[in-house]
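Hey,

Quick one before I head out. I ran the complex with flavin-adenine dinucleotide overnight. Inputs first:
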Amino acid sequence: TGPVVIVGAGHAGFQLAVSLRQAKFAGQILLINDEKHLPYQRPPLSKAYLKGDGAPDSLMFRPQKFFEDQNIELVYDSAKAIDRKAKKLKLVSGKELDYWHLVIATGARNRLLDVPNASLDDVLYLRTMDESEQVRQRMPERKRVVVIGAGFIGLEFAATARSKGLEVDVLELAPRVMARAVTPEISSYFHDRHTAAGIRIHYGVRATEIEATDGKVSGVALSDGRHLPADLIVVGVGVLPNVELAAEADLPVAAGIIVNEQLLTSDPDISAIGDCSLFASHRFGELMRLESVQNATDQARCVAARLTGDAKTYDGYPWFWSDQGDDKLQIAGLTTGFDQVVVRGDVAQRSFSTFCYKNGKLIGIESVNRAGDHVFGRKILPLGGSVTPEQAADLSFDLKKAMA
Ligand code: FAD
């Protein structure tokens, strides 16, 4: 077998290269990396890395030597076009690479704020290591930050900025935080925690303009007519999947690169994995695009297995986490589409989980500082197991019994 060429050296691309070697793939592996760093982890960029003073090396999956030892060729370049007939990948440098199989793992990019002055120097994002580094370096010199978007990344950053003494305002168009991803119970808990820490969260408003004085950020104009002073803006308004490479090669795309239950595009020589893939979920019976480390790495493992002779339907089970201030939120399964939510534990004690049901069946668990419940969810949900809402609400009911 000839070369496997992987476009994108993020969580999905890196894991694929590693899993191929673990599965004894002996052919050439080329990992196209358009960032100037060794492949690194993204979750700490809005968490521990922002908080501390860890060196950039602390983010790297593995040192340079690992890639040499594993014979994984890192190509510092950017993929420009796919010639499907000739099975060649064209790079921005002009180089062309032959592939036996091509894997698109291009991830997603920041959705940019589209208001006047949004390109000022102090309007920052958190997707790449360079962006996180910029935010980290500027925080100590700044006093007032406006965070645009109360999603996971915006709130993780907001909590850190507040803990470092900055004044923090968060703008959110929806009526609650993390509205698209979590239950109202979890939104309400995190609203209370962030508010108690002194963060002001403004709902139902958008930024209409970044205000500037002498070319420097001085505030934000809001859709309700108010103005908030600021010397730093951090934007977390979601991402756009990087589908262009696939689209220009006439591969079907929608809200992601469309792949089948084995993560293959319509071209049997091209797969797409991670944040950029819109996959036919065998488990949930719908097209899904997920943005998580679990999804990126499990999809990579599935493709590595297929390329080494063990083709299977992708069957990864979703899970996620977010660290906000002193709280750890962990999510297993689906926390949208439920019709009943049961709380287990004690919200006031900051140790509780929400069990989400659909038609009486458990579909997801959100846990706040209750790792045991999360572990339970990760074990039982993929197997289709359940506990009744009454059992979930009853702390004297031992979840371990249901796992046995
Ligand atoms: P990425 O990691 O984005 O990697 C894609 C790579 O491809 C990038 O390096 C990109 O530059 C490159 N690329 C794009 N186009 C080209 C091209 N044409 N040629 C070459 N290279 C190209 N998930 C969790 O589960 N838990 C968390 O707590 C969590 N926290 C997060 C915090 C932050 C700040 C961010 C940004 C993400 C977080 N995520 C978290 C999401 C998780 O990091 C992503 O789901 C994961 O990185 C997706 O992996 P990926 O390989 O698909 O994409």
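The chain has a mean pLDDT of 97.

Talk tomorrow,
K.
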